[in-house]
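Fold it.
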Amino acid sequence: MAQLWGGRFTKETDKLVYNFNASISFDQKFYEQDIRGSKAHVAMLARQGILTAEEKDQIEAGLDGILADVRSGKLEITSEYEDIHSFVEANLIDRIGDAGKKLHTGRSRNDQVALDMKLYVRDEIDETDELVKKLLEALQKIMEENVHTYMPGFTHLQKAQPVTLAHHVGAYFEMFVRDRSRLADIRKRMNTCPLGAGALAGTTYPLDREYTAQLLGFDGPTRNSMDSVSDRDYVIELLSAFSTIMMHMSRFCEEIIMWNSNEYRFVEIDDAYSTGSSIMPQKKNPDIAELVRGKTGRVYGALTSILTTMKGIPLAYNKDMQEDKELTFDAIDTVKGCLALFTGMISTMQFNKQNMEASAKNGFTNATDAADYLVNHGVPFRDAHGIVGRLVLTCIDKGISLDELPLEEYKAISPVFENDIYEAISMKTCVEKRMTIGAPGPDVMEKVIAENKKYLERKLKKTACNLFWFVIVCTRKTDVRNIRTPG
């Protein structure tokens, strides 16, 4: 059992206790981040004169060799090691000898794991942001192609007023734009470097924490060493943002499931994103939509778990905080997988436009416009509301829509109606009259789509400025070309 501690202990840890305490089974995901952080730490130690240039070169070469061998599969991360930190350090010492024992100078596993987690989360935020952007691009394409695709808008799951598919999908576009904004906020707020905080009280070594932060693409070092090692706010914020992303996808999935039903037949899900029944040959099930809806609860569970874990932990680091990793890793994998599959599903869906428009007509979504017609002809709105209610009741009795009701039936209830009522309540007129910003009218929708396009073409500014990094590289003596930077 490879451990980074033991001098104070007189007997070996019980095997069951060791396995319960070990984290190598899941924190091995950190191997790249752990090595990246170690290289930055070594570069700083050499610059401060704590390591010699020769020791620095030896350690960096050893770390590069471990990274290459793990990536290629030549070196396996096994349960022989307690955690990823002991794996890297033990293998480094095996390869380069005593110089490897100096790697851990001026740091603790507490600030080391805090760094690894931040680097990992930051990388995953960037990857998740790209997936959300691809989803937005898929939504944008649907919007561009369906400015004139009429469908019912709903409240209380009742058909309410006519909208367009572009307008309906545009609501989700806004949701996922806010999701990207949340991810960017989290990335910015968490972008301080905990390395150098030590176990909880810093260190007596003359570390240059600002330099280490720069090498790793952080805005600067954390300002309190106790908070540095005990902070998991960024994990909670990430899981909260992930829960919101999943909630948005789940809402859309619920609608797709309904739209896919025989009663609606608004969409045809591509065969690649559907499954059949083992007993009923006619079935085509929206399994991907249902699974995304179901996995939303899984991500909610991760958020609830970390909130519950953190609520009673005194300062500074406690072993409870090891529980942040497995649930965060699982949530990250779940969200990224759902985003990729959901984007593929909606990108290949076929929309049954005729069914959508027919549903809007048969659901009396133009009733409000019929009332507005009367108001525009001098009828008080409350009277107009009652008149149209009677018209709807007549249509229900006859099994027809307002568009199909003969003019004499209109006049029998109110003589104000004339032949132009049919144009006034057509789906085209009902939609095109709604021209305020945010409404489904085609002119305003085209403006929104144009703004969406500009938004998607913009690059979100990362907190680590490329020009700033270039200046660092050019002005520092230490060779940092092989240290991976974000973005």
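The two ends are 37 Å apart (CA to CA).
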